[in-house]
Design brief:
It is a single chain. With 270 residues, the chain is an alpha/beta fold. It is 42% helix and 12% strand. The chain is built from 13 helices and nine strands. The chain has a six-stranded parallel β-sheet with strand order 4-5-6-7-8-9. The protein is globular.
């Protein structure tokens, strides 16, 4: 069956910042046509037959929030949409959430290790309640980033956040933290129905059997294709899903239909 593929987890940057963004994986010396900029993402999408990509910006410091979200809004095109970035410690944070809604951003992205915050801290309760009230989908980086950090978020801690977001889709990136111990997996499988996981970096860090086991146990109807471009390969991420034993309908759900349900309002406004 024909599938319109949506990559829910990509990153691009202004040209002036693209090389710096690759330092995290020691690839700042990559040739220009491999840098994480819009024209290169669009080229990779065409090569992989991807219909739509969702950009996930990261606000690493409160003072960069305005610039990050201005760029996120400017890059939107027919086949590109963007979440907004939010740093929970930025001044007037509740008003900033309202701005993201007014800008028609597709959702809100958080990255605890890069932002150096414990998102599950009770002091952020009002943030989650406002996001839930406005109906904004939420994507949260899970597991470690470059190296383990005291700010890494795992399923047990994510539960404290998710209970404050009962009415919106919550996407736990990187399969909820990629390879977990049994306790972590058990907590993941008990998440409520509004919680999804994305496949970002699975092709790079999981073998097919582990990926299929976790995706199958969590439920293919709540797994979303994401590549983590430029850090992960779009074609490899698609190939991993296509090589699983899931049915054609389940593969279609993972590759695009699950994302389409979450993004329906944003897609309608394009």
């Amino acid at each position: 069956m024909e599938t319109q593929i949506i990559d829910f987890h990509t990153h691009i940057y202004p040209v002036a910042l693209a090389r710096r963004a690759m330092e995290v994986v020691r690839r700042e010396g990559d040739p220009y046509d491999s840098l994480p900029i819009r024209e290169n993402l669009l080229r990779r999408m065409e090569e992989a037959d991807i219909s739509l990509s969702v950009v996930q910006p990261v606000v690493s410091r409160p003072e960069t929030q305005t610039d990050v979200n201005r760029f996120a809004r400017e890059i939107v095109r027919t086949n590109l949409i963007s979440f907004g970035g939010l740093h929970p410690d930025c001044p007037h944070v509740l008003e900033e959430i309202e701005k993201l809604k007014d800008l028609h951003m597709a959702g809100v992205k958080f990255h605890p290790p890069f932002q150096k915050v414990h998102l599950e801290d009770g002091k952020y309760r009002e943030i989650w309640e406002r996001i839930n009230h406005l109906g904004l989908p939420v994507l949260i980086h899970c597991g470690c980033a470059k190296v383990p950090s005291p700010y890494d978020l795992h399923p047990a801690s994510a539960e404290e956040i998710i209970r404050l977001l009962p009415d919106v889709p919550v996407i736990l990136a990187h399969m909820g933290g990629l390879s977990m111990d049994q306790t972590g997996e058990d907590r993941l499988y008990r998440m409520p129905e509004n919680v999804y996981i994305d496949t970002a970096m699975s092709a790079e860090f999981q073998d097919k059997d582990e990926f299929e086991r976790i995706a199958g146990s969590f439920g293919p109807d709540r797994v979303i294709f994401g590549s983590d471009f430029p850090y992960g390969s779009q074609r490899a991420a698609i190939r991993l899903i296509e090589e699983t034993g899931f049915s054609p309908w389940e593969k279609a759900a993972i590759l695009g239909e699950n994302a389409r349900k979450i993004l329906k309002d944003s897609i309608r406004k394009r």
